[in-house]
Inverse folding.
């Protein structure tokens, strides 16, 4: 409550099933098409116990992962800090939450989330 | 052997739980929750409350009890490092408990529960909030 | 050509030569015994005799053959003989006997005269002797000619038969040889003259000459004694020679008589034979009887008669057969007709029965039609009543529908009200829930405040109980509202179903009404039609009665016709019997 609240400039909003996740836009280097049978890329759907599906591949310099669809939110948004209980969650990939239409959306690091998904898969 | 301090007694599923009244910040009505990727089953999700992100825990799921009721009501527990919400299917109110307050187990979540204490509503398991929080933070 | 005609012209004339030679022998014998031929003159006499006999034979033969030229040609000709030639040949053959007679007679007379003259010239004998020789020839001529004639005529008859067999009918032969009248009388006279005259002449001559001889020898004796002795010697000596000559002449005459009798009698016998055969029923068996003169006329007439008889008998036989066939056919067709008539009668009887049945049916139909008319009238009334009822039902069901609709509207309104109440109750529940939450938190805060907050907590707890009791009530109300909602939903559905049912009911009632209208129309039409049918069936009844009567009449007529047919059948049987009888009668004649 007392921690400073960061502002996020640019956000890649992704849809994974009925859920939403977001990546800082600065974190994303490339977005590409991905279809089943393409090169193996970690699936964000796995984090929600969903089966793989065609979608978009979000990549930074170190890794990438597949989401169902995505959009860019360019307005600056306040980044709510990670609650203490969840500091180690998602393999430390969780950067915080943003409020979008009274609904929280987790903001994740692409590289670490990809790594986390890779580990979970392994 | 009575604990003069008041405890907020609530039910989650079949079981009654109690938290010390000073740790029980308030009883809230839950908005729609956001699922956290890769979260365990008992972590139902998070919601924003007064500018803070609060994780929501289902005690019944955590203890392996049967889950047959959904509830919009939760008890917001505050510890030094942060807050968490415990799903309550029914809130009995603040009561003075009588012992015993022995730990219910040596390991796991049982290590952070004590009792069986007696409240007007029945026998309750008393939650030790700090240890409980830390246990969950580790698990997460 | 016919093999039977080969050599016929020679065979038929042979007897004339034989007769001539026979006559010549008789003449020589006679002359030897009755004429005192001077010694030394015999050789010239025989010479003359030989020459003239040969000449006479050749001349006769030539004459005869000339008369048989066609017969000769037929024998030589190749291929089938022409009918006219055959007729000509028959004619020639028929004329041959007469020709032979005259030629023989002529040759004899000429020959005798010639011999006498030649002999007299050659030997310078007494003219009396020469005259006697001539007389002898002339006297024997008719006998020999008759003999030739009789023999030739026998052969001619056979020859005519053979020529006719080569391709001539009896009628052709009859046409070829025209019958002659008054010939038989002349012929008999000639026969009589020859048979009586010739022996008489010869015997007279012989007696006269002998007497003269004896007288001459007696007169030549010088004395009566010698004369008497000579006379006795002469009477005793010359008797056998005379008897021999006489016997020879008699034999010739007898032969001649026999032959003439045969020549006349054979055709008569044949005709008698034929008559017996015809009398016995055998017709056309032995053909023509070749003969001459009136007998030929009789034979020809008889043959023609027989031919006509054959024709008549044949025609009768044919007619009998035809009648038999016709009566058979008639009988068979009669039988067929009878069968047909029987069938027809049976069919007519059946038809008549059927017609009667029809008449009965027509009566029944007429009765039924009357009943149907009554029923149609009843149907019409029933349809009218039904239509009125259906119309009333339609009005009623429309009212039911309106009532149902009103109920449905009310229920819908009620449902809306209940839903409004529900919303209010939910609102109250929400407030109670929030109050409960507030009270809980107040209690919690009061508790945190320790002793100071105890009273506050107590108030908060009371507030909570109040809120909870409100929430309990609202939950009950919500439950009730749910029940009401379910009930109203059920009511809405029920009323909607009722409306639909009444819609259907009204539609059905309309249809029923329309159907009944149609039925009414049809029933009216039916009633009219039934009226017409009733009328028509009554007319039909009358018609079928008439028909039945007509059928009965026809049946009666047919039975009558059958009776007539039976009579006709009997008549035909009689006719058949007659035909059989005729056939039997005619059958007695065998036509070959």
């Amino acid at each position: 409550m007392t921690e400073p609240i960061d502002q996020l400039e640019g956000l890649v909003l992704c849809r994974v099933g009925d859920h939403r996740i977001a990546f800082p836009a600065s974190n994303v280097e490339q977005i590409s098409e991905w279809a089943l049978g393409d090169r193996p890329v970690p699936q964000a759907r796995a984090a929600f116990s969903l089966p793989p599906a065609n979608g978009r591949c979000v990549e930074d310099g170190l890794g990438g992962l597949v989401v169902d669809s995505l959009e860019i939110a360019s307005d600056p948004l306040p980044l709510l800090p990670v609650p203490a209980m969840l500091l180690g969650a998602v393999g430390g990939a969780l950067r915080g939450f943003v409020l979008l239409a009274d609904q929280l959306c987790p903001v994740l690091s692409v590289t670490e989330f990809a790594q986390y998904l890779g580990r979970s898969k392994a | 052997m009575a604990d003069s301090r008041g405890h907020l007694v609530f039910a989650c599923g079949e079981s009654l739980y109690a938290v010390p009244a000073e740790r029980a910040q308030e009883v809230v009505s839950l908005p729609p929750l956001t699922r956290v990727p890769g979260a365990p089953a008992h972590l139902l999700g998070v919601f924003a409350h007064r500018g803070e992100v609060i994780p929501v825990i289902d005690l019944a799921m955590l203890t392996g009890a049967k889950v047959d009721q959904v509830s919009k009501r939760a008890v917001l527990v505050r510890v030094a490092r942060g807050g968490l919400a415990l799903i309550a299917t029914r809130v009995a109110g603040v009561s003075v408990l009588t012992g015993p307050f022995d730990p219910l187990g040596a390991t796991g979540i049982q290590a952070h529960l004590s009792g069986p204490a007696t409240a007007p509503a029945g026998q309750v398991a008393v939650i030790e909030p700090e240890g409980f929080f830390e246990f969950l933070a580790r698990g997460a | 050509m016919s093999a039977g005609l080969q050599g016929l012209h020679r065979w038929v004339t042979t007897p004339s030569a034989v007769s001539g030679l026979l006559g010549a022998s008789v003449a020589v014998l006679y002359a030897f015994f009755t004429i005192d031929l001077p010694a030394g003159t015999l050789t010239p006499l025989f010479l003359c005799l030989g020459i003239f006999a040969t000449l006479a034979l050749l001349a006769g033969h030539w004459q005869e053959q000339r008369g048989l030229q066609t017969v000769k040609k037929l024998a030589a000709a190749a291929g089938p003989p022409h009918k006219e030639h055959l007729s000509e040949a028959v004619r020639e053959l028929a004329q041959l006997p007469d020709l032979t007679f005259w030629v023989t007679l002529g040759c004899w007379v000429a020959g005798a005269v010639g011999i006498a003259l030649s002999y007299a010239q050659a030997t310078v004998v007494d003219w009396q002797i020469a005259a006697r020789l001539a007389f002898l020839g002339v006297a024997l001529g008719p006998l020999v000619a008759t003999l030739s004639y009789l023999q030739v005529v026998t052969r001619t008859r056979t020859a005519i038969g053979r020529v006719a067999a080569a391709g001539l009918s009896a009628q052709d032969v009859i046409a070829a040889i025209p019958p002659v009248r008054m010939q038989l009388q002349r012929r008999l006279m000639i026969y009589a003259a020859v048979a009586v005259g010739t022996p008489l002449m010869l015997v007279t001559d012989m007696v006269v000459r002998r007497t003269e001889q004896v007288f001459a020898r007696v007169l030549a004796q010088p004395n009566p004694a010698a004369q008497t002795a000579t006379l006795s010697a002469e009477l005793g000596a010359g008797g056998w020679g005379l008897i021999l000559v006489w016997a020879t002449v008699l034999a010739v005459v007898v032969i001649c008589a026999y032959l003439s009798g045969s020549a006349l009698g054979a055709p008569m016998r044949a005709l008698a034979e034929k008559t017996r055969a015809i009398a016995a029923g055998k017709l056309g068996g032995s053909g023509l009887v070749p003969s001459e003169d009136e007998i030929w006329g009789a034979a020809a007439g008889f043959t023609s008669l027989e031919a006509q008889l054959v024709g008549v008998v044949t025609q009768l036989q044919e007619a009998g057969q035809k009648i038999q066939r016709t009566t058979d056919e008639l009988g068979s067709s009669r039988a067929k007709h009878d069968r047909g008539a029987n069938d027809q009668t049976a069919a007519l009887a059946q038809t008549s029965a059927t017609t009667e049945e029809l008449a009965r049916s027509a009566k029944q139909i007429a009765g039924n039609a009357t009943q149907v008319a009554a029923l149609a009238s009843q149907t019409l009334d029933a349809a009218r009543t039904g239509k009125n009822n259906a119309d009333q039902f339609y009005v009623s069901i429309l009212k039911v529908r309106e009532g149902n609709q009103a109920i449905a509207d009310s229920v819908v309104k009620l449902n809306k009200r209940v839903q409004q109440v529900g919303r209010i109750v939910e609102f109250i529940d929400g407030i109670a829930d929030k109050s409960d939450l507030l009270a809980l938190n107040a209690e919690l805060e009061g508790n945190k405040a320790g002793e100071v907050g105890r009273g506050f907590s107590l108030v908060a707890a009371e507030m909570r109980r109040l809120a909870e009791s409100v929430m309990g009530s609202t939950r009950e109300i919500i439950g009730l509202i749910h029940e009401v909602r379910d009930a109203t939903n059920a009511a809405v559905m029920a009323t909607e179903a009722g409306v639909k049912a009444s819609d259907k009911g009204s539609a059905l009632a309309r249809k029923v009404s329309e159907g009944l209208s149609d039925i009414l129309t049809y029933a009216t039409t039916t009633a009219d039609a039934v009226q017409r049918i009733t009328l028509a069936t009554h007319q039909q009844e009358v018609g079928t009665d008439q028909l039945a009567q007509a059928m009965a009449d026809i049946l009666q007529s047919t039975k009558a016709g059958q009776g007539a047919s039976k009579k006709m059948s009997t008549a035909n049987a009689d006719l058949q019997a007659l035909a059989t009888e005729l056939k039997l009668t005619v059958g007695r004649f065998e036509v070959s």
About this structure: Chain A touches chain B at residues 1, 16, 19-21, 44, 47-48, 80-91, 94, 96-97, 99, 102-106, 108, 113, 116, 120 (CB under 8 Å).
